[in-house]
Amino acid sequence: MRKIALFAAASAAALTLAACSEATEDSAATTADNAAADAEANMEAAGDAMESAGQSMEAGAEDMAADADHAAAEVEADVQDETTAEAQAD
């Protein structure tokens, strides 16, 4: 009788472990899926931020080029004794 009770208790413990293991696997799969979704969202946000920074840099470079052209025209106007508009037309 003791052997039967011991066997029943061991069987119940084994079933409990199996059920717990399955729940753990499901939880791990859910965690992995959530981590992948978070990584994807973070990469998308980083890409958007980089695109915005690139556009800002491009606008800044265009402004600097325009400033350099204007400064060059002023220098040319001083050297050739003409107006800045005339120097820019050259």
From TrEMBL:
Question: Could you tell me where the Acidic residues compositional bias lies?
Answer: 75-90
Q: Which UniProt keywords apply?
A: Signal
Signal as a keyword?
Answer: yes
* Chain intervals with Low complexity compositional bias: 39-51
Region listing for Disordered, in residue ranges: 39-90
Top-level taxon of the source organism: Bacteria
| Endpoints of the signal sequence | 1-23
Q: What is this protein called?
A: Entericidin EcnAB
Give the species: Qipengyuania pacifica
Its taxonomic placement starts with: Bacteria, Pseudomonadati, Pseudomonadota, Alphaproteobacteria, Sphingomonadales
